[in-house]
Specification:
The structure holds 2 protein chains of 2 kinds. Helices cover 61% and strands 11% of the residues of chain A. By secondary structure, chain A is α/β, with parallel strands linked by helices. In chain A, helix 2 (18-32) packs across helix 4, helix 10 (181-206) packs across helix 11 and helix 10 (181-206) packs antiparallel against helix 12 (240-286). Chain A is elongated. In chain A, 30% of the residues are buried. Chain B is of the alpha/beta class. In chain B, strands 3-2-1-4-5-6 form a 6-stranded parallel sheet, with helices on both faces. Chain B has a 4-stranded antiparallel sheet with strand order 7-10-8-9. The radius of gyration of chain B is 21 Å and the shape is globular. The relative contact order of chain B is 0.09. Classes of the chains: A alpha/beta, B alpha/beta.
Chain lengths: 530, 241
């Protein structure tokens, strides 16, 4: 069999193997995916290995160490590092895909399969990995184990460098610097240039006169110390010419330092937003059962305040940066993104989203957002604000489960408030949870003292509560109200069943107390049965 | 056909005004609409409102005339623009002290200003809507129940009932009144004159002694409430005879 056929067969075999892909994905996540649950533990483990190994090597400089510690360091730690290095090389890219691509190309173009090109490509990719800065550090970190060569001990430093990998913040810092590669390189060139010029000139003028400057190296050393505004003062110019040069390079030095500062500061300014956003996304991915609020309008802000007060999780999305910044300054999670675009929700796991609320001030936007959300999740609960009556149907068609219009709410409230101002205010107090008066729902749990009781038997007055009514769920789900029946002020002989929902009114403490009693009685009952 | 209730003067037929006007009409009020925007006026007439007036809200004399000619006691300031509502409120309060003004606003800030200007009731529409969303998200069953009581079931009603002098409730402790058993109504709160003019929820646990002039807030079937009111009145009459 030819090498090419072996390669192609092998590649297809791997491509077809779910197990192989699963294993590779697992390692890829473990090594590279910050959002992966177990990466954290892997990172902690590696940090521990590095610190312990560095400690051992430092200890070893002065005193001979325990045989076991030596074995631990040389075989175990180095072994893990080596395995990690190889794993990283493995998951860096998918070589099988290169082979398959080339194979398909060759069939399509009716050419012969080019083994050489493929191998070259694979090696090129792997070399790309090997020469990346972090990989070099990894490799150098493996070296200190051969301590027979004393010089290799210096590489213990690289074990410390290796910590970089496991701390996200430092990686961000490096990324920020990398984004200003060109500027930093220019700066370096400039510094080299100035050091060369001033070093050579001071050498020319002072080599004979100044006992401290005897070699060109001294001159360069003096020059850099002066430029950097550090100025130890161990070497000072003694001739007039030397002083003149000093004057110039002191001024240049200040310029260069401010240049360096400005590069780094501006890099941070530009990158910080991105870093922050990544942080926020990271935090969002940790949440469970949260709401997404699209559009940080006034109404959204009020809703956010309420949700915050009730300790519910939510994320705010807005197109405008000022708005998200205002939300962030209040301590809310907020992302600047266009909720009508696919990118906005790409990183969000809709299984964890409890509901999406779109509250922008334009019906058109709300419709687009609804459609967009529906393209990600068919069944997430979706509430939308509407402004124009004509949009009702469109929003429903776009997938909104519930519509809310402040105008309609105002209309209904307005008409009732004329007739019954006090009653409406009371209801409003309940809805806004002012004065601690609340309306709440309590489910009749299995085995709780509510089950199969008659309403008359439960003295709600004793708990300082009022029973407004009972909602009986006939069967099935929560969202459709067709199957639910509301019994207002049920008579004394009304018998409660499992899954009935009591609508009660009362003060916060009374309600919480009652809810706890119901839950406890249900748990107790379940225990007894066992 | 039910008899017409009070006359209400509604300023503004924008997005808010329209909804409020329709709801008022639905609740049998005689609605008068005042507006300066021609487009809105046209819409109002298309929607079938009979009493439509063109006003210049900056002309005090004109406003005074409208009010005196028709004898309104209740005014609704429902322009979409908050500033206009504040301006109207303060104008009316400057001319007529006794008039009842209900105004719409979209923020706490304006609500405060409206109250300072003298509005008797202020509806913060955004807050109301935001809270409604919260309840839909977190407590669907409660939303459903309140909707049912307030809007869906027209046989149910909220009512404020003042206790007449010498009626059978006068002087009784609220705990002994047994509203549920006797009248099939729920009393949710009370404005107890002895404790000041503020509304208290009954569940606070304060034991109220009912007196004439106290206001009970009740929910119940309309006929139950009617029966309750009738008995209350009768008992008060019987005493005087």
């Amino acid at each position: 069999m030819k090498l090419s056929t072996i390669l192609v067969n092998f590649a297809f075999h791997l491509e077809g193997s779910q197990k192989y892909k699963k294993i590779k994905l697992f390692f890829k996540n473990l090594l590279e995916n910050d959002d992966y649950k177990y990466k954290k533990y892997f990172d902690y483990f590696m940090i521990f290995l590095i610190l312990s190994s560095v400690a051992i090597i430092i200890e070893e400089v002065k005193t001979p160490i325990n045989k076991w510690l030596y074995y631990y360091d040389v075989y175990f730690v180095t072994g893990v590092f080596l395995i990690e290095y190889l794993l990283r090389m493995w998951v860096y890219n998918d070589s099988r895909k290169i082979i398959i691509d080339e194979f398909e190309n060759s069939i399509f173009l009716e050419k012969e399969f080019n083994t050489k090109k493929v191998l070259k490509e694979i090696i090129k990719k792997k070399i790309e990995y090997v020469t990346s800065p972090l990989a070099i550090i990894d490799l150098l970190a493996i070296l200190p184990s051969y301590r027979e060569l004393r010089i290799l001990r210096v590489f213990v430093l690289f074990r410390v460098f290796k910590l970089l990998r496991y701390s996200q913040n430092i990686t961000h810092f490096l990324q920020v610097l990398a984004s200003k590669k060109l500027e930093l390189f220019t700066l370096l060139l400039l510094v080299t240039f100035v050091v060369l010029i001033s070093g050579i000139s001071i050498y020319v003028f002072e080599e004979q006169q100044n006992p401290n400057i005897s070699t060109l190296f001294d001159a360069f050393y003096w020059s850099l110390v002066t430029i950097s505004t550090v100025g130890y003062g161990d070497i000072t110019p003694e001739t007039k010419e030397g002083r003149a040069i000093t004057l110039i390079i002191i001024l240049t030095g200040i310029g260069l330092i401010s240049f360096a500062t400005s590069i780094i500061v501006s890099a941070f300014n530009e990158k910080m937003d991105e870093v922050k956003e990544n942080r926020i996304l990271h935090n969002i991915n940790k949440l469970n059962n949260f709401y997404i609020i699209c559009g940080y309008t006034h109404m959204a802000e009020l809703l956010a305040n309420r949700l915050k007060r009730e300790k519910k999780n939510f994320v705010i999305l807005d197109l405008k940066k000022e708005k998200t910044e205002r939300a962030l300054s209040k301590g809310y999670l907020a992302i600047t993104a266009d909720a009508t675009k696919k990118e906005a929700f790409k990183k969000i796991d809709f299984k964890r989203v409890k509901a999406v609320v779109t509250l922008t001030e334009k019906d058109m936007h709300n419709i687009f957002i609804c459609l967009n959300v529906r393209s990600f999740s068919r069944d997430v609960f979706l509430i939308s604000r509407t402004i124009d009556k004509n949009s009702y149907k469109k929003l429903k068609l776009a997938g909104a489960d519930y519509l809310i219009s402040p105008y309609e709410t105002a209309g209904i409230f307005g008409a009732k408030i004329i007739e019954q101002p006090i009653a409406i205010e009371a209801i409003n107090d309940i809805l806004t949870a002012k004065k601690n008066a609340l309306c709440d729902q309590v489910e009749v749990l299995k085995g709780s003292f509510l089950e199969n009781r008659r309403v008359g038997e439960i003295d709600l007055g004793k708990y300082k509560l009022i029973l407004l009514g009972v909602i009986r769920v006939k069967e099935g789900d929560f969202s459709t109200d067709l199957k639910r029946e509301f019994f207002f002020n049920p008579p004394e002989d009304f018998k409660l069943k499992i899954n009935d929902i009591l609508i009660i009114m009362g003060y916060n403490i009374s309600i919480n107390n009652f809810k706890t009693l119901v839950t406890e009685s249900s748990i107790k009952h379940a225990r007894k049965k066992r | 056909m039910l008899e017409k209730k009070d006359k209400v003067l509604l300023f503004g037929y924008g997005k808010y005004g329209e909804q409020i006007a329709k709801q008022l009409l639905y609740n049998n009020y005689e609605v008068y609409i005042a507006e300066y925007d021609k487009k809105n006026l046209k819409r109002a007439s298309i929607d079938g409102f009979e009493h439509i007036m063109v006003v210049d809200i900056e002309n005090d004399d004109e406003l005074t005339d409208i009010l005196l000619d028709n004898g309104f006691r209740k005014i609704f300031c429902a322009f979409d623009n908050e500033e206009e509502n504040i301006y109207l409120t303060i104008t009316f309060k400057a001319i007529f002290k006794k008039i009842d003004i209900i105004a719409i606003c979209e923020s706490k800030e304006t609500e405060r200003k409206l109250k300072l200007a003298g509005a008797n009731k202020v509806i913060d529409t955004m807050e109301a809507a935001a809270n409604r969303i919260f309840f839909i998200l977190e407590k669907q069953a409660v939303t459903e129940a309140i909707d049912h009581i307030l809007f869906k079931d027209s046989s149910l009603a909220f009512k404020e009932i003042e206790i007449p002098q010498n009626s059978f409730l006068d002087g009784i402790n609220i705990k002994d009144a047994k509203f549920k058993n006797r009248f099939d109504i729920i009393v949710i709160g009370i404005v107890d004159k002895e404790l000041g003019n503020k509304f208290t929820f009954i569940t606070k646990g304060v034991s109220h002694k009912l007196d004439a002039g106290d206001i009970l807030v009740v929910i119940g079937k309309k006929e139950s409430i009617d029966r309750f009111e009738k008995e209350l009145k009768n008992s008060s009459k019987n005493y005087t005879h």
